[in-house]
Amino acid sequence: MPLLNSIIVYIMKNRQKRIHKFIDEPLKTQERTLEHLIQKASATEFGIKYGFNKIKSYDDFKKNVPLQSYEDFFPWIERNLKGEQNLLWPTKINWFAKSSGTTNDKSKYIPVSKEALFNCHYRAGKDILSFHCKEFPNTKIFTGRSLTLGGSHEINPLDKDSYIGDLSAILIDNLPYWVRRMRSPSRAVTFSGKWEEKIDKMAEETIHQNITSISGVPSWTMVFFKKVLEKAGKKNIEEVWPNLEMYMHGGIKLQPFHEQMNAFFPSKKLKCIEIYNASEGFFGIQPQNSINDFLLMLDYGIFYEFMPYEEFNQKEPKTITIADVEKGKTYAVVISTNAGLWRYQLGDTIKFTSTQPHRFVIDGRTKQFINVFGEELMVSNADKAIEIAAEKCNVNVTEYSAAPVFFKENKSGAHEWIIEFENVPADLTKFNYCLDNALKSLNSDYETKRYQDMILRAPQIIAVKKGTFYEWLKSKNKLGGQNKIPRLNNDRIWFEEIKAFVEK
Fold first, then answer.
1. Which residue from 155, 147, 275, 169 is spatially nearest to 214, judged by alpha carbons?
2. Quick check: 57 and 132 in contact, CB under 8 A?
3. Chain centroid to CA 362: how far?
4. Cα distances (angstroms) measured from residue 176 to each of 170, 285, 297, 325
């Protein structure tokens, strides 16, 4: 194993040459990507309808192909689900990633092509390891097993020749044989659909294995770690897996779980790498353990466009390419992919921290914000404010959701928060004060609206005990996978449902 580890580490380090090429030539890389995608799909039904054979430039592409939402694409995807092929992409679509995002009742079904699997998601997996090997050249990560907290899949009820399921399950099921041998748990456990039963079996199967890396959404990983300690009878995860050196995570921030992570890993030697991916594709990697932004991965068969924040609600919003983005500005992400999504509005907003190379932070979601009163509160503001307030009050926040309280009679508006604490603070008023002040310091629009309570009153907080949001997700049969809590709501639809659950 040491020899094999050394060989793989050498190979992974060499991947940095390709990464530096697209860093040095971002526009050329993206132009080649668009040209390839257009040529590849020119004979598809979508390509014929929108005149792909006449597209010679990005301007032609914008003129010929309208911006698309998932709802716009659904008639095409529905036909694809029923077995029709060559609609959006020329190669056969056998897999559909089922994504409910922030717990929507209506799931999304995203086509996953072989090109998306191998040239996007698997390439990203190799690049993550490449960054790790570069930063830690003495790594022993390939001497043990990689553990993945994956979801499940099932036969597509509309077409018995295809499958639907969590993206993680699709990726695991299509791994090369030699890679499967280096991962845990077994396929039978991995693809189990009953989450609570799965983590029990997963813990039981892996506690005696040499696990050197783990990947999974932080909230579910914490649940799994607790189960591992329960099964192993140990005080921390380092006692169970002493050679564990890397944790790869995405979906939600790790920050709310730092107190738990420090208890699980008291030596603090675990390297945590954050990624930015979705059912629609793989977009960004945290290139170093010590930084907080992502490198935009430009050669995964995805062509990027960026919609400036001021264009969000315009009838004909403008978009730009990687060549024209500016540091510090908020953009909505628009993608065209090697699975047949064309000018697809991803729903995420990002802010570039650098343009040489192109690094960014996730700013929020186009559907997850509060802007009822002109406060333009983004998820990034809320996450940071929660972090600041928690630190000042010496508490740990595990989850939260917020929504507007509308004007009523002679009262101004407000934001109402349901906040799940590891331990509910003794002085909730102090936490409220700290949260309010943090939001003011982070968001000038919020600060303006809070002036003398004229438009916004102080936040209203409902404190709930640890595990409340987990139980809510369980009640909706939304445990595991990519299901996430809706952090910010511009209306009260989801919030009222959560509130009713916690107050019953």
1. 147
2. no
3. 9
4. 12, 23, 23, 38
Instruction: Choose between 201 and 151: higher pLDDT.
Output: 201
Whether residue 266 is preceded by a cis peptide bond, meaning omega within 30 degrees of 0, is: no
Indicate yes or no: pTM above 0.85: no
Q: What is the mean pLDDT of the chain?
A: 89
Those residues whose C-beta lies under 8 Å from the C-beta of residue 497, and which sit 6 or more positions away, are none
Contact 421, 449 (CB under 8 A): no
Strand partners of residue 296: 284
Question: pLDDT-based confidence at 333, cuts 50/70/90?
Answer: very high
Residue 122 confidence (pLDDT) above 80: yes
- What is the C-alpha to C-alpha distance for residues 56 and 280, in angstroms, rounded to an integer? 25
The alpha carbon of residue 41 and the mean position of all alpha carbons in its chain are separated, in whole angstroms, by 27
pLDDT tens across 33-62, in order? 999 999 999 999 999 999 999 999 999 999
* Mean pLDDT for the stretch of residues 363-390: 83
DSSP states along 171-200? HHHTS-HHHHTTEES-HHHHT-S-HHHHHH
With CA atoms as reference, report the closest residue to 357 among 303, 294, 282.
294
Q: Domain segments of the chain: what residues? A: 18-98+290-365, 116-278, 369-503
- By the 10 Å C-beta count (0-12 exposed, 13-18 middle, 19+ buried), 477 is classed as exposed
Which 8-state DSSP code applies to residue 453? G
Q: What is the CATH number of domain 369-503?
A: 3.30.300.30
